[in-house]
Structures are given as C-alpha cells and as structure tokens.
From TrEMBL:
<keyword id="KW-0677">Repeat</keyword>
<dbReference type="InterPro" id="IPR047149">
    <property type="entry name" value="KIF11-like"/>
</dbReference>
<keyword id="KW-0963">Cytoplasm</keyword>
<feature type="coiled-coil region">
    <location>
        <begin position="431"/>
        <end position="495"/>
    </location>
</feature>
<dbReference type="GO" id="GO:0007018">
    <property type="term" value="P:microtubule-based movement"/>
</dbReference>
<keyword id="KW-0493">Microtubule</keyword>
<comment type="similarity">
    <text>Belongs to the TRAFAC class myosin-kinesin ATPase superfamily. Kinesin family. Ungrouped subfamily.</text>
</comment>
<dbReference type="InterPro" id="IPR019821">
    <property type="entry name" value="Kinesin_motor_CS"/>
</dbReference>
<dbReference type="InterPro" id="IPR011989">
    <property type="entry name" value="ARM-like"/>
</dbReference>
<protein>
    <recommendedName>
        <fullName>Kinesin-like protein</fullName>
    </recommendedName>
</protein>
<feature type="compositionally biased region" description="Low complexity">
    <location>
        <begin position="43"/>
        <end position="54"/>
    </location>
</feature>
<dbReference type="InterPro" id="IPR036961">
    <property type="entry name" value="Kinesin_motor_dom_sf"/>
</dbReference>
<feature type="repeat" description="ARM">
    <location>
        <begin position="704"/>
        <end position="747"/>
    </location>
</feature>
<dbReference type="GO" id="GO:0005524">
    <property type="term" value="F:ATP binding"/>
</dbReference>
<keyword id="KW-0175">Coiled coil</keyword>
<dbReference type="GO" id="GO:0008017">
    <property type="term" value="F:microtubule binding"/>
</dbReference>
<feature type="domain" description="Kinesin motor">
    <location>
        <begin position="69"/>
        <end position="415"/>
    </location>
</feature>
Length: 921
C-alpha cells in the first residue's frame, strides 16, 4: 500500500452497449488473409520494415505478415476552471485543423510549428468518435486473429484515463475505449466455440501488480525464447461471458489502482494500467480425403474419414493507460509522491528511447531498460496493430510538456510493425476427434462381431436340431418298414402253408405235389411280381434319398457360415490395419510439424542475419565513416545551421545528440565566439539543449562552457542570445557544484544587469529561474545578497507576467528556507536579508495570489521568515500576521498549513499579538 498522499480510486459501471462504424484511424475492411496480404500496397500501411535483433517486437509463428505503421491521433482537452482564470489573458498554445489533420503549436504570437497526425480530435469530440477512429479498427483486427494495442500518452491531467477507462455509469455516452472494445468483442464471438479472458495489471514503481488480486503484487515477466512472445503467467485470468461482468471487473481493478492528488490533477494516476484481453476463436476444418475399404460384395464403403486439423486463432488486445508525465516543480510532488513521479518519468523515458531507436532503424533497441518497454515489446516494432492517442492541454503555461507529447507522437508515427495473424493447428482437438472416431469404429466392429458370432451359433444349433430330427425320423421309418415287411412275410408263409395242406388233403396222398419248400418258392416268386410291394420299396428309397439331400443341404449351409466367419475376420483385420495407419499418419503429422517449426526458426535466424548485414552495408555506403570529421569552421557552421533547420522541422533532440557526437563539445563552444550573429544564436541554442541533460552539464563546465555563457551575458546585446544563455545557466545552476562556480565568476552581477536591462518576459523568466536556483544554496546567502541578487529578483516584479512572478516567488522561498535553517543552527542572528532589502511588502501583497505556483511559494516564504523571532515584529507591522493566520486555516496544502500553525504557536510575540487582537488559531 502506498504512503503519503496516495489513495485508491473507484470506477463506475455501465450496462448498455453500442456498436458503430465509421471512417477510422486504422480502417481496413474485414477480408480474407489473401486480401490482407495484398494490402501491403495500401498507403495506409507503412513500407516493409526490416527485422533486427534489437527490435521492440518479437516474431510470431507465421511466415507472412502485413506491414502496418503505428497510427497516432491527438486529442485536445478543453480548458479547466483553473486555466480559464489563470490564462484568461492568453490564447491557447494549440490550434487544431481537424479537416486537414493538422495541429499548430504556437511559439509566440507570430511564430508557430505545424504537425500532421493520422487524426486530430478537438475538445468537442465525443467518446464514441474517439473510439471509432482510434480503437475500433484495432478491435476488428483482433477479432480477425491479429494482436492489437491501444495506448494513451500525455501530461498528467490531460484526459488519458477519461479516454480509455471511463465506465460511463452515470452517462452511457461517456464510456471509454475499454468498455466499448469489450462490447464489440462479445457481440462478435460465439460462446459455444470461442473464449474471451481478461487480465488487469498495473506497473507501479517498476513492479507488476495484479489489480484483480491485490495480494499478487510481484508478477514476473517471461519471454518465449522461440517466438519472442512476452507473457505474464502469474497474472489472474478471468473468463468473460457478458458485458456486466466485465464492467464489474474494471470497477474492482480501478478501486485498487494507485492515485494521488497533485497540482495538475486532483486524482492523478501513479501507475501504468494494462488491460489484456485474450481472444481464442476456432475455425472448423473440412474432410480432405476419404479412405475406402472393400466390403463383402466387393464394393467400396466409406468407413474411415481423415480430417484436417482444426485451426485456432489466438489474438490479444492490450489497452495501456500510461501514467502522466510531469515536472516536479509544476506538479508539486513531494515525499513518496515525488518518488512515484521519478519512477513514472524513468519508465516513460525508457519507452521514448525505444521508440526513437525504432524510428531511426537503430541496430540496438534498449527494451530491457524498463518493465514497461518489456511489456510493450510486441506493440512497437513487433507484430501487433498499434494505435496511439496522445492527449494535450491548451494552456500556454504547459507548452513545453505539450511540445514533448507532440514529438513523442511524431516519433511513434515512424515506427512500423509487421502485423501477423496467429493461427495454429489444434492437434489436441484433432487427436481427441480421431480417438472418438477410433472408439466408435472399435465399438461398431465389436458389435458386428458379436452379432455375427450369435448368428453363427444360432445357425449351428438349428442345423444340429434339424439333423438330429432327420436321423431320428429316418431310423423310425426304417424300423417300421422292417417290422411291416417281416409281418407280411410271416403272414404270407402261413397262408402258403395253409394252402399246401389244403391241396394235400384235396388230392389225397396218391398224387405227388412236391415238397413244401418248392411250393413256397414258387408261391413267393409269383407273389413277388405284385406291384404293391415294389411301389412301397421305391417310396422308402425316395424318402431315404430326400433325407440324404436335406443332410447335404445342411452341411453346405454350415460351410457357407464358416466362410462368412472367415470373411468377417478378414474385415476385422483390415479395420485394425486402417486404425494402425491412422495412428501412424497422426504421428507423421506431429513429426512434420516439429520439422517445420525447426525450419522456420532457421529461416528466421538467417533472415535476421541478412537484415543485419544489409543494414551494415547500407550504413557503410550512405554515412560518413567514423574516421572522418569536420575540419573547417565553415563546415562546422553548416552543421549547426543544418541542425537548427532540422529542429525547426521536427523538433527532435536526437539531432542535437548526434551533432554532439560527430562534432565535439569544444568545437561547438568555439562557435559562441563567432563574429556571425546567426552562428552565435544557433550555437548557444545547441549548448542550451545539451545543458538540459544532467549527463552533459559536467562536460560543458569542464570544457569552459559556463565561462562562455557568462561572457555572452556580459557582451551580447542580442535579446535572443541573452535569453537562451540565461536559460542554459539556469539549467547548470541546478547542480550544487556549478552554483559556486557561477558565483565565483560573477554570475549574480551579470544576471542582475541582464534583469535590469531586459523587457522580454521569457528572458526575465530565465534570469529569475537561474537566481532562484542559486538562492537555494546555504553557503552563498551573504554573497548573493551582497551582489544584488535579492534586489534583482524584486526588480523583475515589474514584468507582471505569471511565469516571471512564479520564479521570483520560488527564489524568495528558497532564500527564506536557507535563512530559517541557518537561524535554527545558530549561524545567523540578525534580521532576514529579505526584510532588509524590502521584500516583505511584496510578499504580503502576493500571499493570496490567484496563481497557485506564486501563492504556494509565498506561503512557504512567510512560514520560514516567521520561524526566526527577530523577524516577527517587522512581520506584524507589515501585516504578515493576518496572512499567517489565513494560511494556518485555509491553505490547501496540509504540510504548509501545519507549518504555519506550528510557527504561530511557537512564537511568544505572535501569541501576545494574537491575544491582543483576540485572534484564535
């Protein structure tokens, strides 16, 4: 949990949804992949950018991509109440030309700079309009399978969170990009086959924290060594089914995000918020071939089908709400809030360096300087379609911050991404489908085998029963026929014997008729010719033959059934062979996939090597070799002029650093003594730009740059040279070691003379800033006052310009603070030099100034002056007591209010006067 002035911020909810379409920042129609590949010739995309090992983006699995430049829109915030009062007499520093997509940034009343963007949004642009031109094309690309990024960048208080994270609970028209993007995504995906999941993170003090689960406050960032994809596997991933659940999720995340009250914004974000929306969509494959298997009739039957692997498209939408860039003296950050501001500015500076390197096709991109640049690795120079909205304010007091924001957007427009669709074969799904198909085939085969075995068993049992019945009937018929013939035979023998006896009796015994056996044979031969016996035998034979035929038919049927069993076993073996072939085919496909991935990796490395060699060759042919240098004053002056011309065109500081490396500091400083006035002006501007970087200040002083700048203040009559030189000295005076050198070389006297002669408010502001920085050094108090530093500050009050008065007030506050510290240590016992030089009336007069920078510094000065008892009587006579009482009661800054209360209660003289006047504190 943050300490100091940090608080948690709550969000708002939204229940309605809206879909709209219009011409947009990244507008590309929903087309097939082939038509997208052909879009490389479209002017809306940049040229194909070479890949390099140092690019901010990592490569994907796909072999082809669509080149696309980072698209940038600028949005102007309307004046707030404080600006309407403080800047009532000043025109806006920004002029918009939305029909021409241009923006003019005023330098002064007669000079301005013009910049072009992909879209210019006025202060009257609705949230819906902003979404359509900035984020809707990116959302459509994400739904088609591409990665996308939407990011907001700008000064604190210019409306970044309003543009991206507004929930629109009270007013649906105020919904931000996050809510509207999820509405379009949920409206397009299918709940049955697709999935949408969300992570919500914040980058606070270089630590990745989970906004959905605050206990998860130190998440690591992982990078895939093969594809270069960056992920945060430790983040909470929530599946989203409807819009209401997403709004509730955003509300929970916003409640845990760090925010603080600063002078620039009452609820300033102190962390970078990153919303990651993961979309997974399935594209069903078709049958690519069918494998025929012969059946029992010899015809082809389609039993097994081979499927193409299903295609899965995985895409990611990243919405980044960057914390606002700020200057400490303007935001008033102190304590823990100051440390937060430093961390924010460092991460934004790292992002700016990466974008500068990408815009200039540098061989090295410092991605690992910050966790923010690591998280945005794919958004700049990578494979994502990126849209950036920069937010600016109209106040002329913040022109420097506005110019810095505009230049950030201009550099980002030079970054080109290779947008790639991310498709992969769902081999797991294909394996599951083949396993299911295999299980079905095995089950069907087992069912048919069981049915076949049952049928064979039934036919066998039926044949055995029929055979048994036929054999039993045959045996019974034979037995009946045998008994019948035996009975007939016995009856015939009996009749013949009776007839023979009868014939013997009739003829008597005198006539010989033969023996009985002869008679029986004769009789049998006669009776054998009777047709009845032969027909019966033939009928029995016919029955026997019929039974034999039935038995042969049953045996043939058994043979046929056995042949069918053999045929089914062959079909089963063929099915098993086909299953084995399918499994082998699946293994071959997996092996081929591995080989293709290895080949892709090899080709990518070769492409990177070729790109690196091509870049080296191009630099060798185009640039001037490192061994060559400028050898004449004319060449050096031409470079300086070329530098200023380039600065006037694009405003980048990169050219200054490049000139510094190529020419050298000593040669640049030598131009400060040139007889050509234009050369001196260009040279002093270069030195001033270099002095703004802390890393260059020591080099400038060692090379004699401070002496040259003081010489210009002493000898030059050109207002521009004196203004820029004073600004450079003010930058150098921020370093404590340089302050003593400035004083030793008569810097205060020169600054005082310049303040007395100058009339331009900007020159006075630079001089006042330099003196104010020197006023904060405890060791230089007496010498600064002796050389007229305090009187010079008070003399510049004549300008009346708010910026000049703010610097004067800051110098007086710094001087009073040093005196207070010296009094507490016992090194100063007399009255304050400020009171002796007549600063008290002006301090009391401006203690309640409408401009907050002036008022805050004057309030601090009063509190520090009152801490020394020697000054109390003068302050009571000058009316400072009433202002101290007001500060102790009404000051918006708690630390100043507490300091005033402690000062009043600790002073006996103040207490006595308050009792006399009946003032309660």
């Amino acid at each position: 949990m943050a300490s100091g002035g940090v608080s948690y911020r709550n969000g708002s909810a939204l229940k309605s949804s809206m879909k709209s379409s219009s011409p947009s920042l990244n507008s590309t129609p929903k087309t097939s992949l082939k038509s997208r590949a052909s879009a490389a010739a479209n002017p809306s995309y940049g040229g194909l950018r070479r890949s390099s090992s140092g690019s901010l983006g990592g490569g994907g699995r796909d072999d082809t991509g669509v080149p696309g430049r980072v698209r940038v829109a600028v949005r102007l915030r309307p004046r707030n109440a404080e600006e309407s009062v403080a800047d009532a007499d000043f025109a806006d520093c920004v002029e918009l030309q939305p029909e021409l997509k241009r923006l003019k940034l005023r330098r002064n009343n007669w000079d301005s700079e013009t910049y072009e963007f992909d879209e210019v949004l006025t202060e009257f642009a609705s949230q819906k309009r902003v979404y359509e031109v900035v984020a809707k094309p990116v959302v459509e690309s994400v739904l088609e399978g591409y990665n996308g990024t939407v990011m907001a960048y700008g000064q604190t208080g210019t409306g970044k969170t309003f543009t991206l994270g507004r929930l629109g609970e009270e007013d649906t028209a105020a919904r931000g990009i996050m809510v509207r993007s999820m509405e379009d995504i949920l409206a397009d995906v299918s709940p049955e086959t697709d999935s949408v999941s969300v992570s919500y993170l914040q980058l606070y003090m270089e630590t990745v924290q989970d906004l959905l689960v605050p206990e998860n406050d130190n998440i690591s960032i992982l990078e895939d060594p093969k594809t270069g994809d960056v992920s945060v596997p430790g983040a909470t991933l929530v599946d989203i089914r409807d819009q209401q659940s997403f709004v509730e999720l955003l509300r929970v995340g916003e409640a845990h995000r760090f925010a603080a009250n600063t002078k620039l914004n009452t609820e300033s974000s102190r962390s970078h918020a990153i919303l990651m929306v993961h979309v997974k969509r399935s594209i069903k494959g078709k049958h690519d071939r069918e494998l025929p298997l012969p059946n029992e009739n010899g015809n082809a039957s389609l039993l097994v089908k081979s499927f193409k692997p299903p295609i899965v498209r995985k895409s990611k939408l990243v919405v980044v709400d960057l914390a606002g860039s700020e200057r400490i003296d303007k935001s008033g950050s102190e304590g823990h809030t100051l440390e937060e501001a430093k961390s924010i500015n460092l991460s934004l500076s790292a992002l700016g360096k990466c974008i500068n390197a990408l815009a200039e096709n540098s061989a090295h991109v410092p991605v690992r300087d910050s966790k923010l640049t690591r998280l945005l690795r794919d958004s700049f120079g990578g494979t994502a379609r990126t849209s950036l909205v920069i937010t600016i304010g109209p106040s002329p007091r913040h022109r420097g911050e506005t110019a810095s924001t505009i230049m950030f957007g201009q550099r980002a427009m030079k970054v080109e991404n290779m947008v790639k669709i991310k498709e992969e074969f769902d081999y797991k799904s294909l394996c599951r489908r083949l396993d299911i198909q295999l299980d079905k085939l095995i089950a069907e085969n087992e069912r048919q085998q069981k049915s076949f075995d049952d049928e064979v068993e039934r036919l066998r049992a039926d044949a055995e029963i029929r055979i048994a019945e036929a054999e039993s009937n045959y045996a019974k018929a034979l037995e009946n026929e045998r008994l019948k013939y035996q009975k007939d035979y016995m009856e015939s023998i009996k009749k013949l014997e009776e007839q023979w006896l009868m014939n013997q009796q009739v003829r008597g015994g005198d006539k010989k008729v033969g023996t009985r056996d002869e008679f029986l044979d004769k009789t049998c031969s006669q009776e054998g010719s009777r047709p009845s016996s032969s027909e019966e035998i033939a009928e029995v034979k016919q029955l026997l033959q019929n039974e034999i035929d039935l038995r042969q038919s049953a045996e043939e049927e058994v043979v046929n059934l056995k042949s069918q069993v053999v045929q089914w076993k062959k079909l089963e073996a063929a099915g098993n062979t086909e299953i084995f072939n399918l499994r082998k085919l699946l293994e071959d496909e997996a092996g081929q996939k591995v080989k293709l991935e290895e080949e892709i990796s090899i080709l990518r490395s070769q492409l990177l090597q070729l790109s690196f060699e091509a870049d080296e060759t191009r630099r060798g042919l185009d640039g001037v070799g490192p061994g060559k240098a400028f050898t004449g004053l004319d060449s050096l002056m031409s470079q300086v002029r070329h530098l200023q011309l380039k600065d006037s065109e694009n405003g980048q500081k990169a050219s200054v650093a490049k000139l510094f490396e190529q020419v050298g500091l000593h040669k640049i400083l030598s131009l400060l003594e040139s007889e050509d006035a234009d050369v001196r002006i260009h040279a002093v501007k270069v030195v001033a730009n270099l002095a703004a970087e802390e890393a260059n200040q020591e080099k400038i002083v060692e090379a004699g740059g401070l002496s040259s700048l003081l010489m210009l203040l002493r000898s030059s009559e050109d207002e521009t040279i004196r203004r820029v030189a004073a600004g450079a000295i003010a930058n150098l005076a921020m370093n404590e070691s340089n302050q003593e050198l400035i004083m030793a070389q008569g810097g205060i006297s020169l600054l005082s003379i310049t303040a007395a002669d100058a009339e331009d408010p900007q020159t006075l502001r630079m001089v006042a800033g330099a003196i104010a920085n020197l006023c904060g050094n405890d060791k230089l108090q007496t010498k600064l006052r002796g050389e007229g530093g305090i009187k010079a500050l008070l003399g510049m009050v004549r300008s009346g310009h708010p910026d000049v008065l703010a610097q004067v007030a800051r110098g007086i506050a710094n001087f009073a603070k040093c005196e207070s510290r010296a009094s507490s240590q016992g090194t100063k016992t007399g009255r304050s030099f400020l009171i002796e030089d007549g600063a008290l009336p002006w301090i009391v007069q401006n203690a309640n100034n409408e401009a907050s920078p002036i008022r805050r510094h004057i309030e601090l000065a009063l509190c520090h002056l009152a801490q020394h008892e020697v000054n109390v009587k003068d302050m009571i006579c000058g009316g400072a007591l009433w202002e101290l009482v007001r500060i102790s009661r009404d000051c918006s800054r708690e630390d100043i209010r507490t300091l005033a209360q402690r000062t009043l209660t600790s002073s006996p003289t103040f207490q006595s006067e308050m009792r006399r006047l009946r003032i309660e504190c």
